[in-house]
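Q: How do we represent a protein-ligand complex in a form that can be generated token by token?
A: Start from the inputs.
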Amino acid sequence: MDAVPGVHLRVGQLHSMMTPPPPSDEATRKRSASDFVFGKVIGEGSFSTVYLAKDIHTNKEFAIKVLEKRHMIREKKMEYVLREKKVLQILSGCPNYFVKLYCTFQDTERLYFVLTYAKNGELLSFLNKKGLWNIECTKYYATELVLALEELKFKEIVHRDLKPENILFDENWHILLIDFGSAKIVSSNEDKIENEDETKKRKNSFVGTAQYVSPELLKNTETGYASDLWALGCIIYQMVSGLHPFHAGSEYLIFQKILKLEYEFPENFDKTAKDLVEKLLVLNPDKRLGATDIKPYSSIRQHEFFSDIDWDNIGPPPKFIPSSPGSSNTLDKDNKIPDHLEPGLNAEKASRLQLDMLCRPTNNTPTRKKSEGSRNVTSLESSEIERRLELQKLDKWHNLVEGNLILKQGLVDKRKGLFARRRMLLLTFGPNLYYVDPATMVLKGKIPWSAELRTEPKNFKIFFVHTPNRTYYLEDPEGYALEWCKAIDEVHAYYYSRPVLP
Ligand code: ATP
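Then emit the structure tokens for the protein with adenosine-5'-triphosphate bound:
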């Protein structure tokens, strides 16, 4: 345990918490990384890397979530890990809708969670597939979500970070909820104290996807089961329309809209779904549909949107799975573990697999925390650009970007020689990359654009922007270097690689 200098006590605490859960049928002895072959990175979170792995004894595939102890301790995220483990253990008896925790173990540097492998990826990647996802799919998966929320309520757990990225599909296309690091165990006193602190932290340094956050969480009041009902409303809205109910150019503006319940429905939005969403997206948590049900969530079950659902036997999932080559059902074929790999995971192998992931030509590995501004940055309609610009006028960065629409923003450390300075990096139409001193709000400069500008991700945190006369060394402390590179590349392609019209 002494491998992490200066943090012996903390690691000791982790050690005691990371003992495995009661053995399941096939895991009767303590496992270690050398019992698994690690195939490839299938996901990355703020604090973790998730690998597809195969048990060398049973050949069974798992998703193994790996957390670097140093990182967890440095970022003070240990309670997330411990809470996630606790919640997954509570849910381990539930046969449906939740990823199962088979065992946990650790080595000197990492913690490992061995989980059900959700073979068919994230719900999010299917929502915008026109012609595939329809109201029948929405109804079916909204039903599964309600059943999952009923189970969570029964187990006295609030997920608190429900969003399409955290809803995965198993091999039979049923949902599996993941990511319980922010969950609240309502009955646990210890957890109440822990979670109040957490709420304060969340408010001050919000991380994650802003679009699904409930107003009570933003107002710093107590969050409860109804916060998940709010998220359910947002997800149903998104399943029906492919859009977020609350969208704006920055997280700050999204929060303002949430607090004012400022959202609209597209014209052809299904009528009964609209009524359901309106009854879930209610500012007062107690007034949300289902919030005061004696038998949860009977009032949601009775809503007209679900009138043709047999809640005791919801039947097989609808067929919406794409079948053309290159579409998402190739995910599983792409995810085969090569036979020649040695079991175990060390630093060298972990960085090789992560680099493989960064360099994969069609990178379909889900990554975290895509900000509103960075999604399809260049595919906005002109009316949407105007609307966003109007809203942006309220934003404190607006005056620094010469009236250009901000597509992505975030704090980075800009390194020059030995020194690094914290800067707000603002990617805008134009194209421009402005960097601002966030303490003084002074514009310090712009990275000059040209056709030669090129990005280079070095790892999850560090990325370079090469220009003919200088390379800018940038570090995203949150670890979203890849997302920065993608957004910059997209803007670059938009301005420099569009076909020239005759
Ligand atoms: P966050 O930044 O939300 O806190 P995290 O570090 O808790 O993230 P997860 O959300 O648990 O990490 O996992 C990161 C990604 O890895 C997920 O978005 C998902 O795409 C993938 N993933 C996680 N668990 C599984 C699983 N059991 N099967 C397949 N993919 C998974």
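The chain is about 30% helix and 20% strand. The CA atoms of residues 492 and 498 lie 10 Å apart.
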